């Protein structure tokens, strides 16, 4: 289950839990609806499936920043970006 928090003091959006196919469309709507570069607080993000990793890669490609992402998930997102498979 994914928990999305809005309107942190720095304007970031928090993602916590599991970013998976069943929650990606809602997370994408929230995370990519604005025009300004986005800051994601991923400190509480524990898991991401292929669809979740693709969303994280898309956020980065659009100029967003992701802070607090685990090393494992960060490596998987970077590998996906290098392959261009999202």
Nutshell version of this structure?
The protein is of the alpha/beta class.
Determine the fraction of residues in helical runs and give it as a percent range: 40-55%
CATH C-level class is Alpha Beta
Question: In the CATH scheme, what's the topology name?
Answer: Transcription Regulator spoIIAA
Q: List the uncertain runs.
A: none
Output the CATH homologous superfamily. STAS domain
Report the major sheet. Answer: 4 strands, mixed
Mean pLDDT: 91
Give the radius of gyration.
12 Å
Name the beta content range: 25-35%
End-to-end C-alpha gap: 22 Å
Q: What is the count of distinct domains?
A: 1
Defining traits:
single chain; Transcription Regulator spoIIAA; globular; 86 residues; 4-stranded mixed sheet
């Amino acid at each position: 289950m994914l928990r999305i928090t809005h309107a942190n003091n720095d304007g970031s959006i928090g993602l916590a839990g599991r970013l998976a196919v069943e929650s990606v469309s809602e997370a994408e709507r929230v995370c990519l609806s604005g025009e300004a570069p986005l800051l994601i607080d991923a400190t509480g993000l524990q898991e991401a499936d292929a669809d979740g990793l693709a969303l994280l890669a898309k956020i980065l490609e659009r100029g967003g920043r992701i802070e607090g992402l685990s090393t494992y998930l960060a490596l998987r997102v970077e590998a996906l970006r290098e392959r261009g498979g999202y």
